[in-house]
Amino acid sequence: MISTHILDTNLGKPAAEVEVKLFHAATHELIATATTNKDGRVSDFGIKDLTEGPYQLEFEIAPYFSAKQVKTFFPRVCIQFFIEDIKQHYHIPLLISPFAYSTYRGS
Length: 107
What we know:
By secondary structure, the protein is mainly β. The protein has one domain (2-103): Immunoglobulin-like (Sandwich). It has one helix at residues 62-67, and strands at residues 2-8, 13-14, 19-24, 29-35, 41-42, 53-60, 76-83, 90-97, 100-103. The strands form 2 sheets. Strands 1, 2, 5, 8 and 9 form a 5-stranded mixed β-sheet that branches.
């Protein structure tokens, strides 16, 4: 399973209503699209046949900041990661602010 959440570190709050796309990174094939909930989370992209290999999450954060009337240097954040064991849960959090972002492998 793949999940994610976004925290707006500038406000110290979850980033709700952010579109997140999941791609197979080798082919750039779109696998799923989701929108973060009020807690800034996408709990499950609903993928039944997850395979080993490279993936990419694309976070469309420009509309999020625009709705808050905040300019951002990074309109989109792309994070590539590699799935080695399809039985594991892969949680990829994103911390954003108007001029920086950071990520890590969560649990």
